[in-house]
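Teaching assistant here, posting this on the class forum so everyone can see the example we discussed in section. The complex has two components, and the goal was to see what a joint structure prediction looks like when all of them are supplied at once.
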Amino acid sequence: MTDPGCKRTVLIVEDDRDTRSALAEVLEDGNYRLLTAENGKAALDELRAAPSPPCLILLDVMMPVMDGREFRLEQEKDPALSKIPVVVLSAHADAVVSANQMGAAGFLKKPVDLGDLLRTVEQFCPKSS
Amino acid sequence: MWWMRAASMKNWQVQGEFKALQASAEVRAVTDSVKDYAIFLLDPDGIVVTWNVGAERLKGYKAPEIIGQSFERFYTEQDQAAGLPRTLLAAAAREGRVEHEGWRVRRDGSRFWADVVINRIEGKGGELIGFTKVTRDLSERRRTEEDLRQSEERLRRMIESVKDYAIFLLDPQGRVSSWNSGAERLKGFTAAEIIGQHFSRFYLPEDLAARKPDRELEIASATGRFEEEGWRLRKDGTRFWASVVLSAVRDGDGKLMGFTKVTRDMTERRRAAEEVVERARQQSAVSSLGLHALQTADLDLVRDRALEVTRETLRIDDVRILSAGEPAPAGSITAVIHAADAQGESGTFAVISDRELNANDTTFLQAVANVVAAAFVRARTEEQLRNAEREAVEERGRTVQAEQALSERDEFISVAAHELRTPLTALQLKLQGLARTGGIERKTDRLGGAVRQTQRLTRLVDRLLDVSRIAQGRVEMRPEAFDFAALVRQVAEDFREPAVQARSPLQLHLPERVLGTWDRLRMEQVLVNLLSNALKYGAGKPIAVTLDALSSTVRLAVADQGIGIAPEDVDRIFGRFQRAASIRNYGGMGLGLYVTRHIVEAHGGIISVVSNPGEGATFVVELPSGPRAVDRERLKARA
């Protein structure tokens, strides 16, 4: 599940600017490298422009332009991207259902607890040995 | 046996001739054998000279008793006093023969009706020598005749006295020849008026045209009898229904002598029979109306049918249904429609007729009114049932609406929770991160972020409170004079960074100053809401904000070039919890435009939107620029 080539990079796909920056801040504090995108389409652009794929994608569900579900369909179609694990971020009560439907590797319910977030990210992005 | 009293003979010559006459055996044989006739001789003075067996039998005298006596004793005292015996003798002497009928007196004083013939007897020289007198007792015949006469008289009187039948005779040509009181009573003619007139005057013109009287006579003449019932005329021209029997009268030789006609007035009986038929017809009409009323739910149809049936059955055109309390027209016959419930009278059936209605007619009318009353009750009951049903349906509808409202509220709560969690995520991460990391600058920065999130939460909560206040009509406006253009510039400045983030630059088209009186904070809220929407749905294209000061109004337009709004959504986007865009792509509680609309309207302004899907939307707010009291009632009504 982990890819040593991912270099502790995490892609945050979140339309809410404050949430996106808060996530970025705490992950930067945990020495992760970050990519951000405000919707699915921007995320695809980021991924394709990136020199190497991230270890993990933190994916919001409801977003303008391209939402989380549509992003997942596009990701599955692209062999270069389809292997990247995705953890769904959702404020909805049925976040677990959404995550299953989207074939996600995990989910985090908003508001996100920092400890849960770091543990989850750590699973997919182990510290380089 | 012949008797003779010579002494009574004055003229012996005559006496001699008498003797010769008496002696005639033939005469004696004849006179003696005649028992039914008194045959005797009188001398010229009227003295009885001979007497036969018939005379004795008839008058009661024996020959010796009467021969030599004057014949005057055979007469009544009155006739004697009147000189009748002498007159008769003188007449016989003069004329040669006289005949007389009259009362005669027997020996015992009793009377008999006699036919008397007195013949003069002449001598050879033509001189009067006496008289023969032949007396016949007509009492029996007279009695028979009298009986017959009386019988005829009784019959005549009887016929005359018959009042219920017109009984009269016609001659062979059809002229009236007798007339009874029944005929007078029935037809109105007196005997004097009608006898001699042709009976065709009793017939209707159409019967005359058809030669009916002649044909009836022909039939009666040919078959002996003609019988029929039909209309006849009275003297005054009125009709009556007659039963007529016309019989031919023939003499012993079969010769037509005329006709008897017996006519009876059957008008009353016919009327009674017709009444029975009429009643049956009316009953049938009421039954069919009742059946119709059973099968027809529509009261108007039943009323129309009732009017029609009444017109047809009573043969009266002017039939109406009056509403309860409406006065009946003069001369109308009415039947009240009693609907059998607490409301009582439901109207009146009124018939305006020239002809008098009989008991059957009024009974019929009431029966029709009763059918209509039943239909009234039925219609009222059905109306109540329908109302109850409608109320039940409305109740269900209200339940559905209530459920829908609840469902909208549930959805709103879900959305609101989502919206609240978003800033909470950032806030929580920042505060938790703050607790873990050192460095004052970083802490300050993160605390600033946390504060921003709390402000954001405050705005959300404020908006929820606004909605709640609007719903309860408790929004208060605090008008103050300020420059609207300056406010737009300030809010646009606040949006500068978000606009850059959304890659939708704000293009302002503003006059230098736009002064007016509004609630400053609420107007700021309007601008924030409209700009937030424009950035959110603006698809990264420029947003134009235009402010125009008109004579007494201010016009603000915020135009984006984004996804736009479908025509079917335009009307509802100003409603509570409504949004045109998919919630999958666009968050938000769906309250912004709702609150905006109420703020604008509370200022006496209007908000509208023009949009084409895919080409953006332009929201236009028009506000009066002068001070204006807030219309709380209207605010409440539209909430």
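For the discussion questions: Chain A has a mean pLDDT of 87. The longest helix of chain A spans residues 17-29. Think about how each of these relates to the inputs above.
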